[in-house]
Design brief:
The protein is 35% helix and 19% strand. With 804 residues, it is an alpha/beta fold. The structure holds ligand ANZ and zinc ion (ZN).
């Protein structure tokens, strides 16, 4: 009898062994494979079983690639700047540098429990000056290329985090970090011109092997649309109002216009008697956030008393102000077509403005419109020379017609805005710019980078719109690097996304003091082949990283334009009833006890067994028993078979090839939960076989061990050694299946009715009685007329159906 499975002894032994004898080495001959995890921010709460899931998925995939002969790039690091780390530090009353260092060392210990094959020589930390030197360097390069610029305008402001936010960080009007309602604040900002990359960011999505959902979120966020800018002269004045519309085909139906309250002509257009009302409206709107303005509630507005002329039909259209029109989109002014736009319809109904239908389904005008007809399909009516045209055709042509007739121009518009890049917070990379009274904005010379974050006593946000750095005179006051005059440092810091926008490039050359990454290493090891992480980063981090990579490509720092070739988003592990795991809800499950009681191998496999990896799954501790039992049974089968030394049989060989085929196919399609159930099923089949033969042959068992190795690395190493190998199981190669060997032997059996042969059926040699009879009956189905009274199967010889 073999010794029982002792996970504790085995796991300790192999953890030490791997440290001494690393298995993932670059021999210069292997092809590289870069499998990346979204790096964590080192929170004080440590890891729960949900974090484990992503890391296990990526580790299994990495080890699988290793077994396929690749040299693996599989690094880990820390996204340690930014609001989460700083908010935590403030809450705990410790300096963020100190709490960050402590949290990193705790989480690193926990990560080691996963037995993930990370290459810690590559480790990066975004708060390390040797790292953020290059975050600042990229900014300086962008500044020199005109892609980083300063601008004052009303930005999103989180009153609780006391900082400005990027559009991407505002989710349903709330701060992505803390959930506080976002307001507007007029602030001097550093901006990154991500809009200059809008088309490339959109078009290159086609090249990516990413979930369609994520690609769609990015393309919606970029939001490219074709339309026209149309000029409406103001009646009796010299000015004209330019509107942006995606539907110039509906121009004949424009019965009024609306300007954003911030529009430069808004106040000027008010007639004498409307002035007071208009000014009050403009003031009230300035107090509201964008989201408040766009949310579906009753429309408000005010008539200016002035009119514009519809350039197509010369009709006078009243000019209104309303806050449902945004100042910073299009031209901040729209032509309103109530018959075909919901918001315009609602507005027209409320203020009793005429509604003119111009698109009609099958050419039939609606008698009493109760809602806008928003479908694009139909025939043009009430539209002068356009009458009778198909609206779909006109929609495409109208922008060009308008341009030709000098009424405006065809345009392309994007929803994407430039990236608000400064934060009024302490814990971030200082923006390396010096404000000189003579030279203007001057970048810190590249050789002076990193510009270190100074030590401060008070790092809490001030709330005034100034960063805490502004209070440190000896840091702020400096000399201009160009002219030597007294100058002042920029005191804003970078957002938490700055470091994560490029960290994956640094891993492969993390100690380079001369370059962000050497050209040679960048070419050899990049880009990332597989990126694994949560879906919450669909637009933020994943869009910013693509932008950074394209910029670095443009300045010749890297030779590829897309950072992540393939992306996998894992689902969340939740507590009972799908509730997100959080300390405040008291439903956090720590992996630590489970590792102690069941072992790392069991927990790894259970993390995958809970459900399809791309879907959310509810955690239930009890299920881990099943996986643990499987490993015990597998251990016993392998150990007993090793002792027995049984010879292979045809059945064993066939099952072995089927096992290889099934597991590989499921793994390749990322169906990791069914890989685990597959292991369990095959294990049971082999145990049944072994009952007859005394054991399973060596080659079959070794094949099974290799297949299981990426999932349960410790137990498989131990068994591999038991089978007489001196090198690691991860130095072997992933087995291949043989189509021929998988085939079941078929035999032909005559099928009789009442003892008379009526057909022949072909079935697998080891067919069960039930399956044989069922297959036989199918062959003679049309000849079965009476009541079946008896079914006889003489194994391998005859099927006889007796009917009355
Ligand atoms: C006339 C019209 C008729 C429109 C119709 C729509 C339907 P996207 O696709 O999102 O770009 N619009 C333009 N600028 C706006 C602003 N600053 N604030 C609010 N709305 C604005 O949408 C473009 C459409 O949104 C434009 O086309 C305009 O209304 C409105 F049957 O013009 B449309
Ligand atoms: Zn906030």
């Amino acid at each position: 009898m073999a010794v029982p499975y002792n996970h504790r002894a085995i796991e300790t032994k192999w953890r030490e062994n791997w440290e001494k004898h690393p298995v993932n080495v670059d021999d210069g001959k292997k092809e590289k494979y870069y499998c990346l995890d979204m790096f964590p921010y080192p929170s004080g709460n440590g890891l729960h079983v949900g974090h484990w899931r992503g890391y296990v998925i990526s580790d299994v995939w990495s080890r699988y690639k290793m077994l396929n002969g690749y040299y693996l790039i599989h690094p880990m690091g820390w996204d340690a700047f930014g609001l989460p780390a700083e908010n935590y530090a403030i809450k705990m009353g410790v300096h963020p540098a100190k709490s960050t260092a402590e949290n990193v060392s705790n989480i690193k210990k926990q990560i080691n429990d996963i037995a993930a094959i990370y290459d810690w020589d590559m480790e990066v930390n975004t708060t390390d000056p040797e790292f953020y030197k290059w975050t600042q360097w990229i900014f300086v390069k962008m500044f020199k290329e005109g892609l980083a610029y300063e601008k004052e305008f009303p930005i999103n402001w989180c009153p609780s985090c006391k900082t400005g936010l990027a559009n991407e960080e505002v989710v349903n009007g709330k701060c992505e970090r803390c959930g506080a309602e976002v307001t507007k604040k007029n602030l001097r900002q550093w901006m990154l011109k991500i809009t200059a990359y809008a088309d490339r960011l959109l078009n290159d999505l086609d090249k990516l092997d990413w979930p369609e959902k994520v690609k769609k979120m990015q393309s919606d966020w970029i939001g490219k649309s074709y339309g026209a800018e149309v000029d409406f002269p103001v009646d009796g004045r010299d000015e004209k109002i330019t509107v942006y519309t995606t539907r110039p085909d509906t121009l004949y139906g424009a019965t009024f216009m609306v300007l954003a309250p911030e529009h430069e002509l808004a106040a000027a257009l008010a007639t004498e008697e409307k002035r007071a009302e208009v000014e009050k409206y403009i003031y009230d709107a300035s107090m509201k956030s964008n989201v408040d303005r766009l949310q579906d509630k009753e429309k408000t507005g005010v008539f200016t008393g002035s009119y514009a002329i519809n350039p197509l039909n010369g009709e006078k259209t009243p000019i209104w102000l309303s806050d449902y029109v945004l100042a910073d989109y299009g031209t901040g002014a729209i032509m309103c077509v109530p018959a075909h736009d919901d918001r315009d319809f609602e507005f027209a109904k409320k203020f009793d403005i005429p509604i003119v239908q111009v698109i009609a389904k099958d050419g039939v005008e609606i008698e009493n419109m109760t809602e806008a007809y928003t479908e694009a399909a139909g025939t043009m009516i009430n539209s002068g020379e356009w009458n009778g045209m198909e609206s779909a055709v006109l929609k495409k042509e109208a922008p060009h017609i308008i341009e030709k007739r000098g009424l405006g121009k065809a345009t392309v518009n994007y929803k994407l805005r430039d990236w608000v890049f400064s934060r009024q917070r302490y814990w971030g990379e200082p923006i390396p710019i010096i404000h000189c009274p003579k030279c203007g904005n001057v970048p810190v010379p590249e050789e002076d980078l990193p510009l270190r974050l100074p030590e401060v006593d008070s790092y809490e946000p001030t709330g005034t719109g100034e960063s805490p750095l502004a209070a440190i005179d000896e840091w702020v006051n400096c000399k201009c690097p160009v002219c030597g005059a007294d100058a002042k440092r920029e005191t804003n810091t970078m957002p938490q996304w700055a470091g994560s926008s490029w960290y994956f490039l640094r891993y492969v050359d993390s100690k380079n003091t001369e370059e962000l990454v050497s050209k040679e290493k960048a070419h050899k090891y990049l880009p990332v082949d597989m990126y694994i992480g949560g879906v919450e980063h669909a637009v933020l981090h994943l869009l910013y990283s693509r932008f950074y990579t394209k910029f670095l490509y443009d300045i010749g720092a890297v030779d590829f334009e897309e950072p992540f070739t393939k992306l996998f988003n894992q689902g969340m592990i939740t507590g009972k009833n799908g509730i997100k795991m959080s300390k405040s809800k008291g439903n956090v499950v720590s992996p630590d006890d489970l590792v102690r009681d069941y072992g790392c191998d069991s927990l790894r496999m259970y993390e995958l067994f809970v459900g399809p990896p791309e879907l959310d799954a509810e955690w239930d501790d009890r299920g881990i028993d099943g996986v643990y039992r499987f490993l015990n049974r597998f251990w016993k089968l392998a150990a007993d078979s090793c002792e027995a030394g049984a010879a292979e049989t045809k059945e064993m060989v066939k099952l072995r090839h089927k096992l290889v085929f099934d597991i590989t196919q499921r793994l390749e399609s990322f169906s990791l939960n069914t890989v685990i159930s597959g292991f369990m099923e095959y294990n049971n089949k082999f145990i049944e076989l072994a009952k007859k033969t005394g054991g399973i042959d060596k080659e079959t068992m070794e094949t099974f061990i290799i297949l299981l190795a990426p999932f349960a690395p410790h137990i498989t190493e131990e068994l591999w050694e038991m089978y007489g190998h001196t090198e690691s199981v991860f130095e072997s190669r992933w087995p291949k299946h043989d189509e021929e060997a998988m085939k079941d032997d078929e035999i032909e059996i005559p099928v009789q009715i009442n003892g008379k042969t009526r057909g022949v059926v072909s079935v697998p040699a080891d067919v069960s009685k039930e399956d044989a009879i069922a297959a036989g009956k199918e062959v003679i189905a049309d000849k079965l007329t009476g009541n079946i009274v008896k079914e006889i199967y003489v194994p391998g010889k005859i099927i006889n159906i007796v009917q009355k």
